């Protein structure tokens, strides 16, 4: 059983001691003022946890960021590192495979037609999970 969670935030940081910090976490909606020209950074952080046996035969893991349905950013874990991570998990940690993967996005300038941002988690080039963030541009 695969447990996948994606969180949109303003920033993601890897801290000392293996901790992670998410700054400015969004729920389902991102509200932007129509006068705002720049969204300095948007981060999609994926937390992944599954039985290590579920990873047998998995040789591709990536996050696609889509803007109104079109892929505009991608973070792909190289097959070599994915396999090494799975093997280290089997040797050292038992039967639970977990990881934190991040993809950052800069929207400069903010597209006027922005409606939806999606983070799509791909396993073996197939969609395993999708998290949507609805964008509301308000006029002030």
Q: Could you give the distance between the termini?
A: 46 Å
If you consult CATH, what is the topology?
Answer: Immunoglobulin-like
- Write the CATH architecture name: Sandwich
By secondary-structure content and strand pairing, the structural class works out as: mainly beta
Helix count from the secondary structure assignment? 1
CATH class placement: Mainly Beta
| Relative strand content | over 45%
Biggest sheet, in brief? 5 strands, mixed
Total strands: the figure is 9
**Helix content class:** 10-25%
Report the uncertain regions: none
Average predicted local confidence, pLDDT: 83
**For the largest beta sheet, what order do the strands appear in spatially?**
3-9-8-5-6
Q: Give, in order, the helices and strands.
A: EEEEEEHEEE
Radius of gyration: 17 Å
- Give the overall shape: elongated
Report on the architecture of this protein.
This protein is mostly beta strands and 140 residues long. The chain has 1 helix and 9 strands. It has one helix at 79-92; strands at 2-14, 20-25, 29-33, 39-51, 61-67, 70-77, 96-107, 116-123, 126-138. The strands form 2 sheets. A 5-stranded mixed β-sheet has the order 3-9-8-5-6. A hairpin with a 2-residue loop joins strand 8 (116-123) and strand 9. The mean pLDDT is 83.
């Amino acid at each position: 059983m695969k447990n996948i969670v994606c969180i949109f935030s303003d920033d993601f940081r890897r801290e000392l001691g293996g901790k992670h910090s998410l700054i400015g976490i969004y729920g389902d909606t991102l509200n932007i003022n129509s006068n705002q020209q720049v969204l300095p950074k948007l981060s999609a952080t994926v937390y992944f946890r599954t039985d290590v046996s579920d990873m047998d035969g998995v040789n591709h893991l990536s996050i696609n960021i889509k803007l109104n349905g079109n892929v505009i950013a991608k973070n792909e874990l190289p097959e070599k590192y994915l396999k090494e991570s799975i093997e280290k998990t089997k040797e050292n940690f038992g039967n639970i495979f977990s990881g934190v993967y991040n993809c950052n996005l800069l929207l400069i300038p903010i597209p006027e037609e922005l409606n939806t941002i999606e983070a799509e988690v791909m396993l073996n080039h197939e969609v395993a999970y999708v998290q949507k963030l609805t964008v509301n541009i308000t006029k002030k």
